[in-house]
Amino acid sequence: MSYANEYKCPCCGAKLEFNSTAQRMKCPYCDTEFDVETVQDYNEQLNESMGDDMSWENEAGGEWEEGETSNMRVYSCKSCGGQIIAEETTGASFCPYCNNPVIMAGTFSGDLRPDLIIPFKLNKDAAKAAYEKYVSGKSLLPKVFKDQNHIDEIKGLYVPVWLFGAEADASMCFRAEKKKSWTDANYRYVETSYYQAVRKGKIAFEHVPVDGSQKMPDDLMESIEPFDFTQAVDFKTAYLSGYLADKYDVSSAESVERANTRIKKSTEAAFAATVRGYDSVHCESSAVKLKGGKAQYALYPVWILNTTWNNNKYTFAMNGQTGKLVGNLPADVGKAAGMFLGITGGIGVLGSILWFLLHILTGG
Ligand SMILES: [Zn+2]
Ligand SMILES: [Zn+2]
Q1: 175: in domain
Q2: Is the bond preceding residue 142 a cis peptide, omega within 30 degrees?
Q3: Which of 140, 161, 287, 338 is most deeply packed, by most CB within 10 A?
Q4: What's the gap in Å between 245 CA and the centre of ligand 1?
């Protein structure tokens, strides 16, 4: 029968065949038999949960007002290609991304006006203190990382972020298993029961951020999340004063895919968490349909310090609102070798003390 090919086995996912003798559907792989209705129900649910519709109205960002940007300059870095914006009075001399000199490329024009901004809450002194604490006690660290002139180079940077918000109307099918095992004199038995768990519901997502700068690594930006969005305010150029702002180079349209991935993953995790009491749960099909999807353009505050050492780039970044920080530091190989010897010596001493104690115990 031709339609048989269209049905999936609820146990193993293989294509079922219709067995005319038994008048039932049978799986050629796991040998399980099913009623036709069971299989139909199961597959209907599965098909209902297929096909995402995750489209967005792209209206993020606005137009600059007349004269609003006349004080803003664009600085560009010959070394990494980064372009940053600063008010003329603030100026910029070094690139926040690679710490090489930047040159003024001209007045600022084009680009969209941010809708929102989360202003810096922690000042430069707080950022420097956090950095110094972060590197302190690391005796193996090359000197350049602790250099005061270098630490002074820490920069307050507004990172462009696209914020996505929508209501997700989702339907998902999970295949769940329960296993029971027992033994008799000769055999060990395992009985596996398969369940189809269907979940349907709505989840509202607000301000799912996607970093709009190529120079700012996405994972780095995500690791200093969360930002407290309740403190976001309508954008005004006055907030930029004294800080640098990155020019976005990933458009909101280009950021949609990452936003969708984040939304889909979170929805699946939230739904899966409600399928309880099984030995294993596996998401078989899921459909996420977005309603009222809207994107906004915002600037997020980040303190950043990049250090190049031995041709490698090391980044320290701190959430300018909450103080959450991430960073990577090199290990100085020369110094590490010496340190290692010291540790080995220490273990040697400890070993002999233990031996001595054992000797006393056994001897006594
Ligand atoms: Zn099967
Ligand atoms: Zn650069």
Answers
A1: no
A2: no
A3: 161
A4: 57
